[in-house]
Amino acid sequence: MSRALIIGAGGVAGVVIHKCCQNSGVFTDICIASRTKAKCDKFKEELKDKTSANITTAQVDADNVPQLVALIKEYKPDIVINVALPYQDLHIMDACLECKVDYLDTANYEPEDTAKFEYSWQWAYRERFEKAGITAVLGCGFDPGVTGVFSAYAQKHYFDEINYIDILDCNGGDHGYPFATNFNPEINIREVSAKGSYIEDGKWVETEPMEIKRVYNFDQVGEKDMYLLHHEELESLALNIKGVKRIRFFMTFGQSYLTHLKCLENVGMTSIEPIMYEGREIVPLQFLKAVLPDPASLGPRTVGKTNIGCIFQGKKDGKPRNYYVYNVCDHQECYKEVGSQAISYTTGVPAMIGAMMVLTGKWKRPGVFNVEEFDPDPFMDALNKWGLPWTENFDPVLVD
Ligand code: NDP
User: Fold this and answer.
1) What letter would DSSP give residue 275?
2) Phi/psi at 57 (nearest 5 deg)?
3) Which end of the chain has the least Cβ crowding within 10 Å, N or C?
């Protein structure tokens, strides 16, 4: 018997809502609250006859802490699942602290006016969450999220020491548009147009955007170009995985996506600096978001598969060992099951599982945590059960 308050009603939220409804033995009561209540009501309408969970909806501005507090006090959830945008993270954490309710999100805080994401702002809440006796689980989507669970699993079962981690995020899906992003365009473009970076010997090494390219042959997808990006889990894995010397993150991009992105950048459309347009201030990137396809609408048209996983190199009993663990997810299968494409699916399923881990006491500890700090085993079992089965390979092709 537990009550979850889900904040946000976009692509990822849609999957979280479907999955919580499927898992109504744990999630008996669900409140969907977002800026646009009509979107919450649409999910309720779609699901109310398909689940035994009681669904309610609410309007909330998650940048307004008193509004959030009033909603939490009224609904009395056991956990708040934040699948709005990274800009809201701190406000929602503040409200959870005030009401002493557990918290979970899928992306780390990013101030709206600087395209910079790092954990320091959220880690600064540790002591307050400990004192309040509540749990915050940070970054519980796929990457970050499952990639951290994979790392904890590798460390627990297969290695005495992990020296190298390569996270490979491949989207082999095709939505048929010349240019669209698979999740919130603003967040996505801020991420991929930023400088790349990786961690080597405890230090950040910075690269130009898309400077480092590799080609990898992904199981069930095939050969793809992938590029080194800065990504948030590098920061926490460098602290939590013992003995690690280098961590890199690669994401696949097709040539058409990169050409469009370069052109948009060159004309100034990806800028987050406000400009005056017809007497009012607009942010070019926000305007671009408004003209691009809504990621939530890509579901019916996206075909192909994603393959996301981690390659670990290290030592076990004094001998070198390599280990690759990954999930392959089919866009159309996701669409048939929950009405969205695989990027939202691979993010929303782990968020539901993480919330279940907290609600069932398996990941319940006072403080603020990244996923790799918890026992990975029950989460790994749940991935197989709830739609994201994983495959292991002890002799993978390595990335040079
Ligand atoms: P969408 O843009 O589709 O959805 C965001 C939702 O949040 C919308 O419903 C929006 O409302 C709502 N929202 C925005 N601002 C507010 C506010 N101030 N108050 C209340 N609601 C608000 O994004 P996605 O679903 O694609 O992404 C959701 C999150 O998942 C993001 O943080 C993203 O970074 C993260 N993510 C994580 C991944 C991972 O693997 N870890 C991968 C992909 C995404 P409205 O409908 O009114 O616009």
Assistant:
1) E
2) -135, 160
3) C
Which tens digit of pLDDT belongs to each residue from 185-237? Answer: 888 888 888 899 999 998 999 999 999 999 999 999 999 999 999 999 999 99
Q: Which two tokens stand for residue 72?
A: 């939490």
Amino acid at 176: G
Residue list, ligand 1 pocket, CB within 6 Å:
8-13, 34-36, 39, 60-63, 83-86, 88, 106-107, 139, 141-145, 183-184, 187, 295-296, 343, 347
Phi, psi (degrees; rounded to nearest 5) at 126: -50, -55
- Tokens found for residue 269: 């459309």
Give the integer Cα–Cα distance in Å for 371 and 198: 20
Q: What's phi and psi for 327, nearest 5 deg?
A: -115, 140
Give alpha helix (H) positions in 76-119.
89-99
